[in-house]
Design brief:
Layout lengths: L1 H7 L4 H4 L6 H6 L2 E4 L13 E4 L11 H6 L4 E6 L29 H4 L20 H13 L4 E8 L13 E8 L4 H5 L3 H9 L24 H17 L1 H9 L7
């Protein structure tokens, strides 16, 4: 388990792999022996040593592997360091899919699922492009009202041969987007709010960086930082308890 947690936290691996002579990456990237899963009847093959790292360079959501299994309900915690753009910068409620450039206006782990991904994220479309603005419009509006950015949608799942997703069914999604929640901040104890306003103890909150958020510990967050973010996530879940209970308690279509 510790190995898996370490690998999934190695967000730097994709960026420094192959850097220079490899000396830098060898000192940081996790290494492990991986053996292939071969078709029945094939002879065994020796394990090879690979550098491993966080899979965010391909999909930072975990959604696509669930769609491979034809999951029909998802509570998607969009744990990102990219805030939704302010309305003064970009009003998602007045956008149409044909004119949207979503870069830095919402997390790429969301917009790539709607066909806006580039590079290694370019194979990740599973929803129709025209559905992105209404999703982010809802999240943007809730954020601006001071509420948790939690919204419920249904999407037709598109076929994606690159990921082996058959598609052709409806997915029910509850988006839980990591954003500023003014209601939560207002309810904090006075000393915590004072520290938050200083911007030192809780630097970048709630959009912590996976690297160099804290210069003295470049790959770590402090206990205080983690606890505050966890408390905000709990607040978002409790504030939307009725919605989550309604969605998750409903039996899927395959249940008999």
């Amino acid at each position: 388990l510790t190995d898996m947690v370490g690998i999934s936290s190695a967000a730097f691996a994709g960026k420094i792999s192959g850097f220079g002579s490899g000396v830098v990456s060898e000192g940081f990237d996790p290494l492990a022996e991986i053996w292939p899963v071969l078709p029945n009847g094939n002879r065994s093959q020796a394990a090879l040593k690979y550098k491993l790292g966080d899979g965010s360079i391909l999909d930072d959501s975990g959604l696509l592997v669930m769609l491979q299994r034809r999951v029909e309900k998802v509570v998607w915690f969009v744990n990102t360091d990219t805030p939704i753009a302010g309305r003064g910068e970009f009003d998602w409620c007045n956008a149409t899919h044909g004119e949207v450039d979503p870069f830095q206006k919402v997390s790429n782990q969301v917009y790539d699922k709607f066909g806006h991904g580039t590079g290694l994220l370019g194979n990740n479309q599973v929803f129709a492009k025209e559905e992105l603005p209404r999703v982010v419009c809802a999240l943007q509006g809730l954020r601006d009202e001071g509420k948790p950015a939690v919204a419920h949608f249904r999407h037709a799942v598109l076929r994606n041969d690159w990921w082996g997703i058959a598609g052709g069914y409806e997915l029910e999604v509850v988006y839980v987007y990591n954003e500023v929640v003014e209601e939560f901040v207002d309810a904090l104890p006075a000393d915590t709010k004072a520290e938050l306003q200083k911007g030192t103890t809780f630097v970048n909150y709630p959009f912590y960086r996976t690297m160099f958020n804290n210069l003295r510990q470049p790959t770590a967050l402090t206990a205080a930082q983690v606890n505050l973010l966890a408390a905000q996530a709990e607040y978002a879940v409790r504030a939307n308890g009725a919605l989550l209970s309604r969605v998750l308690s409903r039996r899927p279509s395959w249940w008999r």
